[in-house]
Design goal:
The protein is of the alpha+beta class and 343 residues long. It folds into 2 domains: 183 residues, no CATH class; 113 residues, Cyclophilin (Beta Barrel), CATH 2.40.100. It has a 7-stranded mixed β-barrel. Strands 7-6-9-4-1-11 form a 6-stranded antiparallel beta sheet. The longest helix has 24 residues. The N terminus and C terminus are likely disordered.
Length: 343
């Protein structure tokens, strides 16, 4: 009986895993005091919208795909949504669009290639991906080898399981005006501190006036940047204290490190600033060679940005739910007209 139930939930066979493909949801909260990182989707906005398009709850598990996506064979009919960086997706060798949800039939093959914009993409399936919850989350923490699919990246031959959902024949998509733009140079808003007294006035001005480049050593744990040296006022070390997602540490090299979703929970380098929570998602779409500039905002402004972002997400969900446009799967030309010929 157990084997029959498991077979009934089989959803995809992994024909090719991509570079770094993991199961992620919104993250694992309340355990940093025990040394457990938050993890979860690096770009929370794209993950949430993928779940909206697939008719899931926003905390449902998705696949996060970095720089190059997987090739997946459907083992039963399903409904999938793609968001985030453009991985040039195709369904049965026919080009399809990002930021859109599609029905798939049994034995259909979904291919995701190399990123031509952004860094990370998200694949949601109606009903969500089924992996065990650990500490309240289905997210993968690679360095700890737990969560997600056996605590690791996907491999060829893996069988992904998913929950059952109402069959759909309709295509859903994001309007052109709602699509994020992935630029190679971005501006990120930050709150200065909490250890800004560990830096000279010139050091803080350098940080705020300069352009920094993402290095190849960047990953889910942190983005290592290179650019003008940030000057410390004394020793570049502190007694270890908490590290929040988005914290910007500056070690003795004077080169900033931005803590990301898998960041350690404590650290001994002084923190010059913290990326506002709404802009962490923007950082997540930077790839090596892309550049970032930092803009100071005050706490009141950061709170306002969060409120505006949550209101925007609520309104976006309503727009998506109201946009069931097609009784059947449309041809490519029709879909492109709906999306305003997005490339």
């Amino acid at each position: 009986m157990t084997d029959e139930r498991e077979a009934d939930s089989d959803l995809f066979e992994v024909l090719s895993p991509g570079i770094i493909t993991t199961v992620q949801d919104l993250g694992r909260f309340g355990y940093q005091q025990y040394g457990v990182p938050v993890s979860g989707g690096m770009d929370g906005f794209s993950l949430r919208v993928a779940n909206m398009l697939a008719d899931n709850t926003e905390e449902s598990a998705c696949l996060e795909m970095t720089l190059q996506g997987p090739t997946l064979k459907a083992l039963r009919p399903c409904y999938v949504a793609l968001t985030g960086g453009n991985l040039q997706p195709s369904l049965n060798d026919q080009r399809i669009e990002m930021w859109t949800a599609y029905p798939m039939k049994k034995d259909d093959v979904l291919f995701l290639g190399n990123a031509v914009s952004g860094c990370r993409a998200y694949l949601a399936v109606a009903g969500g991906f089924e992996v065990p919850r650990l500490l309240g989350s289905r997210s993968t923490y690679l360095r700890g080898s737990f969560g997600g699919y056996e605590g690791r990246m996907l491999r060829r031959g893996d069988i992904l399981r998913g929950g059952r959902a109402q069959p759909r024949n309709k295509v859903r998509y994001l309007s052109r005006e709602d699509l994020p733009q992935y630029l190679e140079i971005i501006k990120v808003r930050v709150l200065i501190g909490p250890q800004n007294d560990f830096f000279t006035k010139n050091g803080i001005e350098t940080f705020l006036r300069s352009e920094y480049e993402v290095t190849p050593e960047s990953d889910r744990m942190g983005y290592r940047l290179k650019g003008p040296t940030i000057e410390h006022s004394g020793e570049p070390e502190i007694i270890s204290d908490g590290v929040a997602v988005g914290a910007i540490q500056v070690p003795g090299s004077g080169m900033p490190i931005v803590a990301m979703r898998d960041a350690q929970t404590t650290g001994g380098y002084p923190k010059i600033a913290n990326v506002t929570s709404v802009d962490v998602d923007k950082m997540a779409q930077l790839k090596p060679g892309d550049k970032v500039r930092f803009e100071q905002v005050e706490l009141e402004k950061a709170h306002l940005l969060v409120r505006q972002h949550m209101e925007y997400l609520d309104n976006l969900g309503k727009k998506i739910r109201e946009r069931d446009l097609a009784p059947e799967f449309p041809d490519d030309d029709t879909l492109l007209r709906w999306q305003g010929a997005i490339t």
